Amino acid sequence: MTAYIIRRLAVAVPTLLILVILSFILMYAAPGGPFNSERPLPPQVLANLEAKYGLDQPFWKRIATYVWSVTTQFDFGPSFKFKDRSVNDIIAQGFPVTLTYGFWSFIVAVVVGVSLGAAAAIRQNSWLDYLAVGISVGAQVLPNFVLGPILIIVFTLWLGILPGGGWNGGQWQYLVMPVIALSTSYMASIARITRSSMLEVLNTNFIRTARAKGLSPARVIWKHALKPTMLPVISYLGPAFVGMITGSVVVDLIFSTGGIGQFFVNSAFSRDYSVIMGITILVGSLTILFNLVVDILYAWIDPKIRY
Amino acid sequence: MFPDKATVESLEDAAHMAEVQGRSLWGDARERFFRNRAAVVSLVILICIAAFGFFGEFVAQWERDFVDFSLMGANATQGVPSFETGHYFGTDASGRDLFARVVQGTRISLMVGIVGAMVAVIVGTLYGATAGYFGGRIDGIMMRTVDVLMSIPFMFVLILMLVIFGRSLFMLFLGIGLISWLDMARIARGQTLTIKNKEFVEVAFATGVHPLKIILRHIVPNLLGIVIVYATLLVPSMIIFESFISFLGLGVQEPNTSLGALISEGNKNIGNGTPWQLAFPLGFFVVTIFAFFFVGDGLRDALDPKDR
User: Fold this and answer.
1) Which of B162, B163, B259 to mutate to test the interface with A (most CBs of A within 10 A)?
2) Reported ipTM
3) pTM (two decimals)
């Protein structure tokens, strides 16, 4: 097991380095500098500015400094547009918000998805089953950027029971719609995967044995069927995580929650390269870390996996 | 897609002969597909939507970039969808005909989806087949690369690219193409692993056929079934992907538009009393995605040998 974790780490670290270097090269290749504006700056001022941000250094030195400060000190450098704030300040402001509703969305997607899928499989071909299948097919064509506006129309404009946006320190009323918008399509996928996996497991010999020896149905499900059912679900959690983190950009935009997604899009429009890079690297490392956790979890839960 | 007259006649002839006739894989698949009613209906809907996207301009009464200044700001009252004014779908906030815009948006969204799927098919299949056929260390390196690329959140990298190299349709195609082939490569590799142990590959190898020729001539054609299925399922996810980027305002640029950009615009104007600005693009989007999913499912049932 330890050897397996070390081997997985040996892949994760280079992946992260590739991500950092790739985004740096992309930024380096960008035409025009960050201080190009309609009114050209006097050359002395430009030289001073470039010296302050280290832009007068040769390429290899800049990339080495950047990679070094990112990997060892988690310092993403200063923002090119906000003179008084660093990229770290911006992340510190937006990331807790994203983390809060992201965390709840993930919980909702997994808990509701697994229960719905399992219930549908246990009561196959009942109204519950049809309901679950209907929901998961419907949610497939409602990606978050479609669902978000619909939620606002229904809950804010028609019913007037939920605020249409904002964050307000994370009060629950402000959390409901972002969580629904972000989690629904993944909830549906998880329900679908759980259902088909559970159906398969319920037809295996060891479940028949468990039933034949007189275990209660609840015990058969909880004790014997649930664990093997979860395997495909767990391997879906990695892509779901990537999807949610990407979807948070849209949620931030629709509901003005003020998470990192909002800063990301704003920086994309104002060409604030260092912020874009910083957020890309942060999100990338989170994804890689999460995939690592999922892989280890998978290896731990499935006795058939060889490390 | 539909059997032409010659095949219908030959089928009738065959029935009269009352002889046992060999059934090809594709004939079998076609029969199974046409028995699936949801898939056939979806296929017809898709053909209609494609026709709408490519020929709808001849029906539109207005040029898509003609700005009706008299409607600007008053489109909640005067830009209402109606047959009398010729604005079948109403007008948008700048007084442009929404029908013509939706036609163009549908066309661009379909194109993005199909190009993305095509890149996936060509690059992914060749890559996966090569990795699977050679196996061993080459396979290890090639598939590890795919794993590494897969764990990068590409949406962010793509947005970074769009910002740096400017937003254009070409960059969008390139970015989407960069991402789409990864899954396909994995699927193609898995299939190749089983195919490469078949006798006909062995014979080809024994008679000294060049490895690349074996891949192109003997392995890729046998991958086609599963590749077609996944390509059909990939098109809607590419459309969703593009719409996502356009929704952020980073995708297709004015005066061009896509369904995602139109949905985003409709969303912004939701408080102005112009619900048709959201409803029409959203409707086309949802129906297109639905139809693609059902056709893909139908094809999977028809072509996937697992469910025989």
Assistant:
1) B163
2) 0.72
3) 0.77
